[in-house]
Specification:
mainly alpha; 70% helix
């Protein structure tokens, strides 16, 4: 039962994230009712039920029939799965009061990561407000870990994790990647620490390289080898993999030993 409720909750959060990422810097998000950005028609409650409304309306606006895009459905399902995993790995083993705290905390974490990933995917730009929110939440986690572990290694996590991409950014003068990627890795290092933060870095590079190769091979047939792709979604995907598997850089290295 709790897994099903977690999925519904996550799908609702995913729907909200999709709205924010779509309307950010384009239309009001909170101060007005949800509207179709194509025809301007106000959407009713029956049009906004996560997953079910998309399937019932066949992915199109009820009024102008303009397609919403498959990313809406993928985002809602993806967030539903993420919150099911959050319940399984984090909330289920916590006391009720602690579980509520973690639910609020990770809801804000996933909203901020979801918005920066989707916005970067659409516009190749990281919205600083949501990156700042994730950074603030990561600093809270850094403080929690420091109170439990202490030591300078905890405080060095952000710098160590972000250093490789900071050097790339400096050497290429920002041509190879955006500074938003560097700031995101700083926050990842604050959240996870050195071992798992470096695992996020490594996995994100692998994911980006794999997709880049696939896109390159597909476009080469059309004589278009431009493979520039937004990188933040890969960082977020790697963040989730490390969060739910608890894998670290040393455990990854042991797989190849």
């Amino acid at each position: 039962m709790f897994y099903f409720l977690s999925f519904l909750y996550g799908a609702a959060i995913g729907s909200f994230v999709q709205v924010v990422a779509t309307r950010l810097n384009v239309a009001p998000i909170i101060r007005s009712r949800s509207k179709c950005l194509s025809c301007g028609e106000a959407l009713r409650v029956s049009d906004l039920i996560p997953i079910f409304s998309y399937l019932f309306l066949k992915g199109k606006c009820k009024y102008c029939k303009i397609p919403y895009g498959i990313e809406t459905l993928v985002t809602e399902i993806g967030f539903g799965i993420v919150f099911m995993l959050t319940y399984h790995f984090i909330l289920a083993s916590s006391a009720p009061v602690v579980a509520i705290w973690w639910l609020v905390y990770y809801t804000l974490i996933f909203i901020s990561l979801g918005v920066v990933a989707l916005y970067d995917y659409k516009h190749s730009y990281v919205p600083i407000v949501f990156l700042g929110l994730f950074s603030f939440l990561s600093i809270i986690m850094l403080g929690i870990r420091y109170m439990h572990d202490g030591g300078s290694a905890v405080l060095l996590g952000p710098l160590v994790v972000a250093l490789p991409f900071l050097l790339i950014w400096l050497l290429t003068k920002g041509r190879a990647l955006g500074f938003g990627d560097v700031l995101l890795y700083l926050a990842v290092g604050a959240f996870f620490g050195i071992e798992q933060g470096l695992a996020v870095l490594l996995i994100s590079v692998w994911l980006g390289a794999a997709l880049g190769i696939i896109i390159y091979l597909q476009r080469r047939k059309k004589h278009n080898t431009n493979t520039a792709i937004p990188f933040v979604p890969f960082i977020v995907a790697a963040f989730l993999i490390v969060l739910f598997t608890d894998i670290g850089i040393f455990s990854i290295a042991s797989l190849f030993a």
